[in-house]
Amino acid sequence: MKPPVAAFPPLWRSWLLLAALATVLAAAASIVHPAARQLRISAGRQPDEITLTEARAFRGPLLWLDARPTTAFAQDHLPEALPLNEDQWNVQIEAVLLRWQPGTRVIVYCDDTACGASRHVAERLRHDYRLDDVRVLHGGWAAWRKALAP
Amino acid sequence: MPIPPSAFSLLPASVPVRSMGLALLLGSTLAAPLTAALRWNSTEVSLHLNAGEEIGRAAFAFVNDGDAAVDITSVVPGCGCTAALPTKTHLAPGEKGEIPVEFHRGNREGTFHVSISVYTSADDSPAALALNVEIATLVKIEPRFIYWKAGESREARSVRVELLSPQSAKILDAVCGNPLFTARLAPVDHSDRLFDLVVTPPPDGATFSSITVRAQMGGAQTERIYTLLARTL
Prior knowledge:
heterodimer, A: alpha/beta, Oxidized Rhodanese, domain 1, 2 domains, five-stranded parallel beta sheet, 5 strands, 49% helix, elongated, B: mainly beta, five-stranded mixed beta sheet, four-stranded antiparallel beta sheet, disordered N terminus
């Protein structure tokens, strides 16, 4: 007995199904692959992070701290930023505390969203030195460079 | 109702096998940018150093699970305190290797996160490794920064100094770098492990002083230096 014609869906419906299947496969790969973690990190934003736009809008005094290795700071850094990294902490912290004034907002940055150095520096300043307004620049040095790009 | 023999039997009968192959190819093409040749056993490794330990060692293991050989072109630790050198720099497909790392504590205490960037011929952007180091604290000093605002009374202020470990360690002294300030260690109890560091600023003027607290490990005769800052605004 011949099957009814209605049992065969049109060709476009098959292709739609195939496209959906392909998308599901790609999505699954992007979830389970270790490299996808980096992408997901960059998408989120921590409560103590501040964007470049927000930092520029702040009306009070700002103190920029560069938590990258000293060699990277020597190559280039934000205007008026001071270096403060874990490697040279004991040498660099004094200049930071002498620049700081009550009411100053401290913003720490490192390379990009994935780098943890700025967060650790910020936590140390809050906990060990009791500085109350310390933020981490969302996107770090990469965000600054991107903002400068034409 | 009979159970279908495979998931493919759920597809309409009109879907040709060739089209399904195309779908798989399309799916794998979309996912292709995420494929990396070096696969790390873990991109995060933790280390713990006791109060007397100077060096900590760990390793990041990996395998080249790509189809082509991979060259490790450079390994850049984010801190001069860490040395990292791969056991081999050229990896054939399927070959395993590791990057041993050595952390030198120096005068550090507490938690440290060292990033390590691994550049390879397989990818333009480096693989980001994280070394989390926990170093046992010998002396806890809180806070590390005291200040007197302009116009504020210049009364002495205290900083708590606590010897945490080991039992044989002891606090030696506390010295101000600026003679306008004075610092005195006052025992809080009879344990010889808990002190108030009483800092007296000059009566007027804007100035500052670093204050150095020295502690000594017992048998090892290792001295540790801790600094804090006092400032008048």
